[in-house]
Amino acid sequence: MSNKEHFGSKIGAVAALAGSAIGLGNIWKFPYLTGENGGAAFILIYIACICFIGIPIMLAEFSIGRRGGKDVYGTFKTLAPKTKWCAFSIITVCTSAIILSYYGTIAGWTMHYMCISFTDAFQNATPASVEQLFNDFTSNPYHPLIWQMLFMVVTAAVILGGVKNGIERSSKVMMPILFIILIILCFRSLTINEHSIEGLIFLFKPNLDVVSAKTFLAAMGQAFFSLSVGMGVIMTYGAYVKKHENIHQMSYQVVISDTAVAILAGVAILPATFAFGMAPNAGPGLVFLTLPQVFAQMPLGQFWSFIFFLLLVLAALTSSISLLEVTVAYLINELKMKRATATILTTVVITIIGVFTTLAFGPLKHITLFGMNLFDIMDYTASNILLPLGGMLICYFAGWVLGKESLRDEITNGNKLKITLFGFYFFIMRYVAPVVILLLMLNGMGVFNN
Ligand code: TRP
């Protein structure tokens, strides 16, 4: 038996899917990765990854999800009975728990920053004071935990509402607000002073000197992370999409809005950074260390700061709910739990894991592996290993197990729609994506270096 719950409307489904895709990955991670990896060259490689790998994988995951019509475990059990494919759900549950745990850390910080926007600490920010503020806050053993927990409670509250009244309804409200705020911030950032334009040049004029194998892995990992593909979120949401909807068109709407928001976030952040003569390569701290100084120098800076961090909170929330829903759907369908029990249980477990990533900036700072703290380890493992691995398996499944005819049937709604590029997508899913992903992963991990 398929899911009982569905999205009520097409626009609601797209809002929810785009909400999952558009998140901290677009607004916090993409601008700093671009800053660290040399600007436009990274963006070009990123867009190539989106077009040639991202779109086919999104389509593959979406089709598998809607065809199976259940949570990840149930979907594989239905589509490939008597095989071990349902074990894939173990990867998805682990990956979503890892991502959501550190997602909660950053989202908690953004909530805190939103609330302190109007304080003196922000108004009189200097480079030293901002750094002090950031270090004091993130290394405190209690404060960031409280914010992380608060964020997880809000996430759980939406999931408790269910697919239509929780996920769909909240996304339909939050996504338009997010777009409006982002556009306003772009205008603000571009009109600060004559140096703003340098930020745009940095974003759009490629410097190929800085490109290396790591750039490709970083771009691919980011493409997976940003599109929310590779771990069952799109599959789980796909199962809530009705049979007559055009999933090919919906995939494009999601991919285009996700990419547009990432680039707009770059436009909202980097010109402002250049306008005040600050470096674009501050890493994960770009948003928390560089921007407060930018806001401090701007007229009405406290207001802009509040709006900016509100944007981040909204973006984080529409994504975190999708991460939580993967495991909740599994518990509801397979273990017959009530939504409330499943939500509370999952939230508690993930919040506990998240305590470690949050404390990785304070009391647990000394735990490191290959120079990465617990937080970096989680992010690296999820984005650069588990998501590509998941994406590879999804493509393999679509290309070799589900097969061409079933896939065509699902994407074209039983031959009712004409999808010209179907042959191309199928070729990529079957041959190109699994190989390319594997090579990029091995290369980025330094396997071919000797
Ligand atoms: N795509 C989100 C972002 O850009 C994060 C996210 C939500 C995600 N669900 C996911 C990442 C599933 C990977 C897999 O911030």
Could you walk me through the main structural features you see in this protein, from its secondary elements to its overall organization?
There is one protein chain. By secondary structure, the protein is mostly helical. It contains 19 helices and two strands. It has helices at residues 10-21, 24-36, 40-68, 72-79, 88-116, 120-123, 127-139, 143-160, 162-190, 196-204, 213-227, 233-238, 247-275, 286-296, 301-334, 339-359, 374-402, 404-411, 422-444, and strands spanning 368-369, 372-373. The chain has a two-stranded antiparallel sheet with strand order 1-2. Helix 1 (10-21) crosses helix 9, helix 2 (24-36) runs antiparallel to helix 11 and helix 9 (162-190) runs parallel beside helix 13 (247-275). The longest helix has 34 residues, at 301-334. Bound molecules: tryptophan. Tryptophan (TRP) binds at residues 20-21, 23-26, 99, 225-226, 228, 231, 233, 319, 322-323, 387. Tryptophan is lined by residues 20-21, 23-26, 99, 225-226, 228, 231, 233, 319, 322-323, 387.
